[in-house]
Amino acid sequence: MSREQPLPSRAGEADHLYVDALGVTVRIDLDGVPPADRVSIGEAWSGARHDEATLAAAIVSPRPRFLSDETMSDLSTQVTLSALSARRGDLWLVHAGAIADDDGRVVLFSGRSGMGKTTLMSSLARDYAYVSDESVGVAPDGSVLPYRKPLSIVDGAGRAKKQVSPRGLGLRDLPPTPLRLHAVVVLDRQPRSTEAALEPLDIADAVAAIAPQCSYLAELPRPLETMIGHVSAVGGALRLRYAEAADVLPLIRDLFAAPRPASREPIVSQRAEATRGASGFTRTPVVDAVTLSGARLALLRRTPDDETTIHLVDGIGPVLWRAADGASFDDLVAAAVHAHGEPRGGDARDAVRAALTALCDAGLIAERP
154: helix, coil or strand? Predict the structure, then answer.
């Protein structure tokens, strides 16, 4: 791809603008857009805009060419998807909001839709720098790539979302220093909660909460180990229980004030390939597999419709999964008894049958004739 060159402008308005998203450049093509609308788009993207002509990873354009709230929202989605696609397999990409302090330390807030990321970033980024309200990219060394897109704000009537620039909301600019991950927070917004609180999150619960919010996780080398490594490097994940964004600032001040020494979460990589050519109970393909503390097993699996799902297996499940290498039912019973002993007040065969049924229903083990 050749280096993009600026096109001639008309009536003082450029035919395109460049925005930085997760460390790549996306060009927004404004050809045919009325001058006043070009100004509106430029203002909305002012937090991510840079004026130097540079190599563009993707080119997007407003659809249709006249502006509306829906057009601006669609344009934001186009830029986001283009940037995510360009960084797939390169960065740990999390659907998250993020803020940074003056030293470049970043707190990442992961949460599914409805957890209040945009509202929370709109509140916290008046005291700290706005990094993103949508997607955060973390490099292998822990550095963070910002995405200062417009924020989607519900208008006064509560009917439509408008794309508003960080500047338009009075949010702070990035500090003049590289950004590095300082903490990973999982949002748990509870409207009836009485008091905001931060609490440590077990690694298995963190994996279960964060993995579904990752983009192109399966494209990373050793994706589960990579994700867990980033979380462990900042002292493990935290859960933020809160009702209102205004109640969170004191907790975040304390979080920045305290050191976040790396935790030592023991993880052991497991064979991820399926058993081939064997009869009996066999493992099905998974993208990645690791054993966590407490002998729990985390599996990342790609479904037939190319979605990725996370499975957390405990009890006798990890033993059965590892032993399913063309094993008979009796072989699996023997492996479970060897690892865990005979169950108290029950029958080992019944326990294995129940666990095996759950693993087969989840598509993690299959029985071959």
Answer: strand
